Amino acid sequence: MFRSRHIPPRNPATATVMHKKPSLDFSITGLVYCSMMMFMGLAAMNSQASLLFGVFGLMIGILLVSGVISRVVLRRLHLHRILPELAVVGQPTTVTYQFTNDKRFWPSLSVCLAELDGAEAFTRQPQSYLLHAAARQTATVPIEVLPKRRGLHEMHRYQLSTSFPFGFIKRAVERQQKDMVLVYPAIGQVDPKLLAMCRSADTAGATMRPRRGGQDEFYGVKEHRSGENPRFIYWRRSARTGVLVAKEMTQVSPPRITILVDTYIHPDSRTIDAHADIERGIAMAASFASQALEAGLSVGMLVWSDGWNLIAPARGKRHRRDLLAVLARLPINTTQDAQSLLDESRTAVESGTTPVLITPRDVQLGLSDAVRSGLVVVPSKADQSKRYFKFPDSVHFDRCMPTEQEPLLQRNVRGNAEAQGRRGRAIQLTLIAIGAGGLGIAAIIAKKFLTQQ
Q1: Which among 23, 25, 18 is positioned nearest to 173, based on CA atoms?
Q2: Which residues contact 392 (CB under 8 A, 6 or more apart)?
Q3: Which of 188, 244, 289, 319 fits a disulfide with 391 by CB distance 3.0 to 4.6 angstroms?
Q4: Whole-angstrom distance, CA of residue 126 vs CA of residue 146
């Protein structure tokens, strides 16, 4: 009938509410049934009627059978999670549960699952319902969840519960299976004007610079080596010189971009709004990297992650996953500001690469940075930058940071959460008192009725 409502104390306003059921509980139907059973027992003891004793014994048997069967249903029932390969903040994804029933004869019916760990990664506590799993069979149940926090989340403890067969008794067991899920930052739509701006800022040469080793355009001739493709042999030159020579081709390399992600936050100004600006900048970097890679550009990144982390510009889906994984696991940065990031980029970023600085504040560039070739600054708080990036309505940047990075709230907010918990416990105790009073009243009425008979 009751279940505990747990709110993490660090930030109750943005936390995911988790419910945990007791190991043994009675439903409202079960309490009504127990009241009727007690009424029947009182009637049988007062009247000494054999029929009433028989009915009373039958009702006790049904209650005991309900408790035994509910326990058997949860025995030898194992769970395996199939987590999504790609989970993005604000985009629905699917988590699949495989229930394996290892019992020889008994099926498992009407089983509820609730995750106890890792629920902070989603807007709601992941829950699923298993209708039927036959003996020695596996049943698959998919559910849809909405991630809300980036980072690596551990899904360990979970709870299985059932009220089968009659719904009188609710039984729950807690089990463990460790799985990890990585949630990428929010990815939105990027205005093509921003990519065009970065292309136009590339002053290292032509928009598409050729390099050796491809099959796009003719570059020159070289001596043919054993094992190379014979279709590139230049037969006319080979016949003239008497030595096998081959054509050397080029591949066209697009402009290279290195994203400079500023995640600095002052230790004395750690507020929800300040963290939300940092998360918006991280989401902008993830969106820009994804869009640029889809456009065929080579993208790299420089960011502080307990030390300067430089990823060389490259292309491909695997490189995109690497960039998003680094952004998803970024720690809090309270030491290296935007100027330190620019100073590091002077030596870390190669020449011929366009640097793009994404920062949550208005950065005043020095003279050396102002004349620097191709530097593009994107302030995440500026209105123009917000028009460049469009995120889904389900993304709330004040809830996107990992739980351990959230700032501590004021004590009155925590006091409100504690007051809500006290009110909930008071309501539960009131309902218990009402049920006990109703049972006493029913006993008094039964006694009066039997004495009149």
Answers
A1: 23
A2: 90, 91, 186, 188
A3: 188
A4: 9
Q: Say what percent of the chain tops pLDDT 90.
A: 44
Q: Which of 126-135, 266-275, 342-351 has the highest mean pLDDT?
A: 126-135
- What's the rounded mean pLDDT across residues 423-439? 54
Whole-angstrom Cα distance, residue 186 to residue 89? 5
Looking at residue 339, its amino acid is Q
The answer, yes or no, to whether the previous bond of 230 is cis (omega within 30 of 0) is no
State residue 37 phi and psi, 5-degree precision.
Answer: -65, -40
For 57-74, write each residue's pLDDT tens digit.
999 999 999 999 999 999
H or E segment at 219? strand 209-223
> What are residue 114's DSSP bridge partners?
127, 159
Domain ranges, ordered by start, for the chain: 4-184+413-452, 189-203+255-405, 209-253
DSSP-based three-state secondary structure for 344: helix
Helix (H) or strand (E) segment spanning residue 97:
strand 93-101
- Residue 296's SS3 state is coil
The average pLDDT across 307-323 equals 92
What is the SS3 assignment for 242? coil
Tokens of 322: 């690497």
Query: Which fold, 189-203+255-405?
Result: Rossmann fold (3.40.50)
Inter-CA distances, 424 with 4, 57, 159, 220, Å: 9, 36, 22, 80
Pairing of β 87-88 and β 169-184: parallel
Question: Amino acid identity, residue 371?
Answer: V
Helix axis angle, 192-200 relative to 272-294, nearest 10°? 70
CATH superfamily, domain 4-184+413-452, is Immunoglobulins (2.60.40.10)
Residue 382 has pLDDT above 90, yes or no: no
Cα first-last separation, the chain: 36
What average pLDDT does this structure show over 101-129? 93
Length of the chain: 453
Q: Is 239 left (phi over 0), alpha (psi -120 to 50) or beta?
A: alpha
Strands (E), 237-370: 245-253, 256-261, 298-304, 308-314, 353-359
